[in-house]
Amino acid sequence: MSEQVSNMPLATLRGVSQVEFQTDWRTAACFIVALFAAGWQFGVFGLLGTVVATLTAWVLGVSGDRVMGGLEGFNGTLIGVALVLYFNTRWITVLLVIVAAIMGSVLTSALNALLTPHNLPTLTAPFCAVTTAMVVGAPSYERLWHGRAFATPPSATHPGASVTFSDLWQGLFNGIGQVFFQGTWYVGLIFLIGLAFAGWMVAAAALVSSAVGIVVAILLGAHAADIGAGLYGYNAVLTGIALCGTFVMPSVLGLVYALAGAISATVLTAFITDLFAPVGGHTLTWPFVVVTWIFLAAVPVLSGIRRVPT
After folding, report:
1. Which Gene3D superfamilies did the record assign (predicted)?
2. What is the pLDDT of residue 3?
3. Cα(292)–Cα(219) distance, rounded to whole angstroms?
4. Domain CATH number, residue 253
5. Which of 174, 208, 299, 303 would you call most buried, defined as having the most Cβ atoms within 10 angstroms of its Cβ?
């Protein structure tokens, strides 16, 4: 037990990097630097969510391998970043992140019990479920909502499908940064550098998948402002990384499979966005979760696709 306590800082670091399936401490360090570069509140609340989720899993007796590998912390990271983004830096947000991270930890264990027999990972589903519940229910609680309005995408004030060169190159990096809800290109670049420490294939998968999201969004006529903000790239990024080397072997056919997954996640993004918009919900990483589950569930009956050995 004392050894686990002493390793808790490493578990926390890995919890941050496991948002994108990585355990390298250098990747985690870059991710944390990127969050603080975006704003101190994102770094602080992201770490708060990671620590609470990790400690909750440890106290409740989750497998030490999962806790030390960061697999119990990454949903807490995203919960912390998302809730401070939606509810600002207030004392009530601190309490909300703590409660939500605990809920996310319990839900992670519940989903593991349900999905492990089917060889499916929980991914960011606990984060999506808890954050959606918090955000959709917030208007009923005055101390949470406090006169806030539903968030709108960049296209609400800058509509139009005429894409500029700035939309393209900034959208490429923003598609990576938006995994952590950050829409500043240099923050996305720092995240990309972090992925490069984990391996060139991981960084390439992220960069190519972000580009795929942009191309698909342009072909379908999405708003240029949303493309430039990376809103059509980040679910493709997560899906591409998941299906290219993380859970699926990177063969020629496997790469085509990952590409199809990234395209599917991009297309599904608009559907999820429009589905949640009337009730004030957000797209989050739901497209990535749904598409990746479907593509991984199909692998056992596809003789040309192989899972990465666990």
Report:
1. Ammonium transporter AmtB like domains
2. 54
3. 23
4. 1.10.3430.10
5. 174
